[in-house]
TrEMBL record:
GO terms for cellular component: endoplasmic reticulum membrane. Belongs to the cytochrome P450 family. GO terms for biological process: retinoic acid catabolic process; sterol metabolic process. The gene is LOC116560436. This is Cytochrome P450 26B1. It catalyses: all-trans-retinoate + reduced [NADPH--hemoprotein reductase] + O2 = all-trans-4-hydroxyretinoate + oxidized [NADPH--hemoprotein reductase] + H2O + H(+); all-trans-retinoate + reduced [NADPH--hemoprotein reductase] + O2 = all-trans-18-hydroxyretinoate + oxidized [NADPH--hemoprotein reductase] + H2O + H(+).
Amino acid sequence: MGEHHLVSTEWPRSTRMLLGPNTVSNSIGDIHRNKRKVFSKIFSHEALESYLPKIQLVIQDTLRAWSSHPEAINVYQEAQKLTFRMAIRVLLGFSIPEEDLGHLFEVYQQFVENVFSLPVDLPFSGYRRGIQARQILQKGLEKAIREKLQCTQGKDYSDALDLLIESSKEHGKEMTMQELKDGTLELIFAAYATTASASTSLIMQLLKHPAVLEKLREELRAHGILHSGGCPCEGTLRLDTLSGLRYLDCVIKEVMRLFTPISGGYRTVLQTFELDGFQIPKGWSVMYSIRDTHDTAPVFKDVNVFDPDRFSQARSEDKDGRFHYLPFGGGVRTCLGKHLAKLFLKVLAVELASTSRFELATRTFPRITLVPVLHPVDGLSVKFFGLDSNQNKILPETEAMLSATV
């Protein structure tokens, strides 16, 4: 809560340089406040409502592809591809050919892998690879932006880039091409790694806790999203429908409590202050830890247990105090895209419960690593199956033939 007067955000130098000087995350003071106002329109209720059908389609297409794959898939790798596609296709509205999109994803992975590298600009250093990836990305983004600005026909919704351009004009400052490139790169960065991490954690917990998955299916049946026979109802989801799914909300909250994608936030002390009897000197670097806060918060019972019902109306373990549960940070640096992230996870959970059966393809669950974001060390190997109208697995054709009685 002391941002701008007690502390100021502090990213590593390599991160500041690679993300670019025009980003919200690199801004401070009035510049930061103004940028948040411009970007906030992207995540308004109206904007989320317009993204929702597109997000659902991207997720449905992805799950169909996973189910048709004859082998197990690496969930974390595939979740990264899914969130990247969502950012490019839905958020930014770019019509990039599949082959070019695949190449852009590979370049983007190189960019992300080095965004927290040591800021040493030497040949073959991670920082140099990050700079090279940024240059290729910016070139590709500029091409896509220019093509998009020239072709406005056939649009059935306003994407985030449309809203960003519109919002900047409303606030009296038209964005330059460089600001647009930095803004789109930051949007992809924000939507990519953390959402892929949370998506993977969601799938892992549904695998570990089949009773939670079944309770989720019961809620979907009760709301007419899943027929009693098993098949999903036709039609797209709506925000008000998702808002009414209380247990789904509890599941997403519990995933984000136990498996927060990022560890915390870094700050520089602007003036000496006292915290719990300790003096924090001006100029020091400080970090608040989201994970340790969740692990030690006195309001949560059995903190290591995955228990979505802790967030139910009957228990509401998070209702006392503002700073016991903060998966998206807090204060003026609260994640701008938190409602979009939760929307994506809810749609993914609904589609998983409605249209998929999935099994762990290894004997045991993988251990978790926390760097650069929380994810399973082997990516989580899972076999997906399509479902028939009674929610029975549809086996691949060869398996079906082999198992048939002659």
